[in-house]
Specification:
Rossmann fold, alpha/beta, 6 helices, globular, about 20% strand, two-stranded parallel ribbon
C-alpha cells in the first residue's frame, strides 16, 4: 500500500505537537481517532517518544501502516479499524492500556452520532485524569463564525449533510455529561482550535 499524503498535516503538525507536549507529558498510551493518512501518527510518535501511539481509522488502514513501516518507529502500533458509528463496546477489548485520546479534524467530518460515541468511548476506556484532545474549527455563541469557516461549513454540508462545524457549547456539554472537565481552548492557525478535557 502506498503512503497517502495530506498537505494540511504538514501545515499543522508542528503547532499541534507544541500543544500536545505538555498535555500528554504524563500519558503513556494514546489512541488517535481518525488517523487519516498516518502522517500525524508518525510525526507525533517521533516528537513524543515516551508515548505508545495507537492510530485508528474507519477504513484505509493501509496508508497509516505504510507511514508507520517507513518511519521504523517502535512506539507506533499497527493501525486498528475503529468505527464510531458502530456500538462502542465491540471495540473496547483491544484498548485497555489507553490513557489519552487525540482526535484531529474529524468531529466536523463525521456525523454527530460519532461525536457522541467519541465521548462515550473516552468515558469507557480512559482512567481518571485521562485526557481527550480535539483539533479543528468550532462555532462559538459569543462571536460570529469566521468567513473562511463559513465557506468551509457550506462545503462540508454540500458534500455530506451530516457533516458541519460543531458548536463548542454543545460539544463541551457532551464532554461534561461523559465526566470530563474542560482544561484548555487555544486559538490555532487557519481559524482552528486546540481543545482538551480531563476525566474527573
Amino acid at each position: 500500500m502506498m503512503k497517502e499524503y495530506a498537505p494540511a498535516c504538514d501545515r499543522n503538525s508542528r503547532v499541534i505537537l507544541d500543544i500536545l507536549k505538555p498535555i500528554l507529558a504524563r500519558s503513556r498510551c494514546v489512541l488517535e481517532i481518525g488517523s487519516g493518512t498516518g502522517q500525524h501518527a508518525v510525526y507525533f510518535a517521533e516528537g513524543l517518544p515516551h508515548l505508545q501511539w495507537q492510530p485508528s481509522n474507519k477504513e484505509s488502514l493501509g496508508s497509516i501502516n505504510a507511514w508507520r513501516e517507513a518511519s521504523q518507529l517502535q512506539n507506533i502500533s499497527p493501525a486498528i479499524s475503529l468505527d464510531l458509528l458502530s456500538p462502542v463496546d465491540e471495540q473496547l477489548s483491544s484498548l485497555t492500556d489507553v490513557d489519552a485520546m487525540v482526535c484531529i479534524n474529524t468531529i466536523h467530518i463525521m456525523a454527530w452520532q460519532g461525536t457522541e460515541k467519541l465521548f462515550e468511548l473516552a468515558s469507557e476506556i480512559l482512567p481518571i485524569g485521562g485526557v481527550i484532545y480535539v483539533y479543528g474549527p468550532y462555532r462559538y455563541s459569543d462571536q460570529p463564525l469566521e468567513p473562511s469557516n463559513e465557506s468551509f461549513d457550506l462545503w462540508l454540508k454540500n458534500r455530506d449533510q451530516a457533516s458541519g462545524i460543531r458548536d463548542f457549547d454543545v460539544v463541551n456539554c457532551l464532554a461534561k455529561q461523559a465526566g470530563f472537565e474542560l482544561q484548555g481552548d487555544i486559538a490555532m492557525p487557519a481559524n482552528n482550535r486546540s481543545i482538551w478535557w480531563q476525566k474527573t
